[in-house]
């Protein structure tokens, strides 16, 4: 297979998170600023070196304008593409394109939210209100419960299998000192938790937290001269078929079935090469859908795939090793935290939850209500 010309051309050289869980007294932009400054220090560059800015937020209509003003930057290139929680996987591709074209030299991808301490609730503005408003749904969970119900009806997926996803996430979170939700959790507790939108209980739903994250990218030739271990961009792709859940062509098949294969083709890899899968687990059904659509198992077999701790610590496939959106962090948009965990795993910097051999990671972001799907592949120097 011939390699795509973008494969390995850029690398993440700095990464930081801030305010994970609860950060009372800080605004969304202040948290974003903390993560950006931390990523700059980690990269061994200066804040004023940043000349490319990529941002999406749930609290600023003009995210890049707000970021450059707050940080005092004067970028040559900027992009505020917002396709929900998957925006940041797409930003990796956009930053790589800009860097490779010489339009910027140091790119910042960033996000921040104080959703929890600002009193945010589990709501979504991603649905065109004229479609669903008369029926009084509670989005986004109503949409995801539709997908879960359909998957159960069509393939025999069970609530116990959904619970296996939440159990695995908590198992990883219990190895992560930064995770917001830690401690014992049983399948019985998940199944008996308060029903929010049948068949999804409170334990099937992502957290509502504060949090910020940032990464710094440069061209690969420069990455070798910086102090940290570079993590290379190998491929990325996005796909989007709808915005409203009522327009989704098939409730059991997401656009990840398109974005995943294209990203893997760009990276020149397949599923068996992947050491870590970071999947946007806003709800337990997401993990099952994405394991299927990304080709880790056939369509309809995701429920069987996650049984018996297969994606938990010590299982066959490492999935969401930070604890995911279900047990680690979910501040409105989660996609950048998929990337920071992948970077930390490839670097070998995550302590007790460190995978024995992690050279290749897949990060899959989800936006809206199973709407935009973006997949990115990251690798160590050994993958080049």
From TrEMBL:
InterPro entries, per database record: Thiolase, Thiolase-like, Thiolase_C_2
Molecular function GO labels: acetyl-CoA C-acyltransferase activity
Record's protein name: Thiolase
Alphabetized SUPFAM superfamilies for the sequence: Thiolase-like
NCBIfam families: PRK06158.1
Record-linked Pfam families: Thiolase_C_1 (PF22691)
Domain annotation Thiolase C-terminal: ranges: 239-379
Organism: Aurantiacibacter atlanticus
Transmembrane region(s): none
